[in-house]
Design a protein that fits this description.
119 residues; mainly alpha; 3 helices; rod-shaped
Length: 119
């Protein structure tokens, strides 16, 4: 009856071998996974820091370009006003203004006037 209660000695030895072999395999196979996850976390943190620096640099560049953009808008508005007034003079018959309007049209600069220049 001792064989039935204790089981086969071969089965006990196989169970002992399975228990002894199990944990070291699990530890060894999870180490590369842990290194991979840590490496990815470090890489993502590095990329995040780089993107924050780049965003700050782009914000500084944008703020540095605000004043020149406003100046260019002023110059553009002045130029458009000058072209409109020149077109009005050309419509009134001024020969110098007519020549200037014709030259601007040849160069492809759009002229916004109330009436087309008379020829």
């Amino acid at each position: 009856m001792t064989l039935v209660e204790n089981g086969s000695p071969q089965l006990n030895e196989m169970r002992d071998q399975e228990i002894a072999a199990g944990p070291p395999e699990a530890r060894g196979s999870s180490l590369p996974l842990i290194f991979t996850i840590i490496s990815l976390l470090i890489w993502f943190a590095f990329q995040t820091v780089q993107l924050v620096f780049e965003r700050n640099n782009l914000g500084a560049l944008k703020s540095n370009l605000e004043a020149p953009m406003q100046e260019s808008q002023k110059v553009q508005n002045q130029l458009q006003s000058l072209i409109t007034k020149t077109a009005e003079l050309a419509n009134q018959g001024n020969p110098g203004a007519k020549a200037a309007v014709e030259e601007l049209e040849k160069r492809g600069i759009p002229i916004k006037s109330a009436a087309p220049p008379s020829k």
